[in-house]
Amino acid sequence: MVSSNDVQRLFLQSVISRRVLSADLAKALWKQSVAAVKAADETLRVDANGTDGWDTFIAAVNRSLDPLDLEFSHIHNEVTGKDIYALVNRRDDEIAQIASDYSGLEISYFKALVEQIMLAPNSSYSISSLAALREVNSLKSQMTKTQAENVLNSFVAKGWLLKSKKGRFSLAPRALLELQPYLKSTYPEEILECIICHEILTRGHACPRANCGVRIHNNCYDLYRKSSAKCPACSEDWGRVGSDKVTPIGEAAAPKDDWTRPRRRRSVAASEESAEEEILMEEEGPSQAQDAAGNGEPEAAMEVDEDEEPVRPKRRGKGRRG
Question: What's this model's pTM, rounded to 2 decimal places?
Answer without folding.
Answer: 0.71
